[in-house]
């Protein structure tokens, strides 16, 4: 059946919905605005209608023989060059008016990548991936960007942020964003970035030292100007009952 350009609601209702997979991917990066780490995510500029020229989440149609998680990972690799260490199904978005051309049901995944995996440039607002000007990083809470996203992608990003903030109590979030070894100060940076607020260092350190899923190691972070801080590791489960797919 041919697609009806910008069909009205009744015409769209008569077409079978198209299935798509999109991904929200978060990474920690330096934020000159706040002076601390913040959450960033890559977006793709659309090169065709609808919403041509506007930024959107990486994604694409679901192929007839693709698994959901494979499609999400492949879309990320093709559009951003990133292979996420963690990929979890977030939610399904299928409102009738998501697209002006045809009803699209999107299975949305979210991913966490470590800061070392997310490329940097000297550009403060965005950085380009894959030498492609149509793929760039933005702050996850950049209102000027969120207000002009294609489709309902602002709603999707805000929902992903809400889920992440509700799961930040799980030490695995810091583990996935930081790596195998990290300092307590680095864990605090993760919490401050996710919660978007400053935390008292002394109180936060006491809470972390009381956590049962963090264990100090015999290693220290080298290269600083002061006494090197001790490195810790996450000892809890790397999965959670809410996770539907996991790439480690």
UniProtKB/TrEMBL annotation:
InterPro entries in alphabetical order: NUDIX_hydrolase-like_dom_sf, NUDIX_hydrolase_dom, WH-like_DNA-bd_sf, WH_DNA-bd_sf, WHD_NrtR
GO molecular-function terms, A-Z: 8-oxo-7,8-dihydrodeoxyguanosine triphosphate pyrophosphatase activity
Bias (Polar residues) ranges: 235-248
Domain of life: Bacteria
Enzyme Commission number, as recorded: 3.6.1.55
Domain Nudix hydrolase, chain residue ranges per copy: 21-158
Record's keyword terms, sorted: Hydrolase
Keyword Hydrolase assigned: yes
Short name of one Pfam family: NUDIX
Keyword Hydrolase: yes
Renumbered residue ranges of the record's region Disordered: 217-248
Chain coiled-coil ranges: none
Domain NrtR DNA-binding winged helix, residue spans: 176-233
Protein name, per record: 8-oxo-dGTP diphosphatase
Organism listed in the record: Paeniglutamicibacter kerguelensis
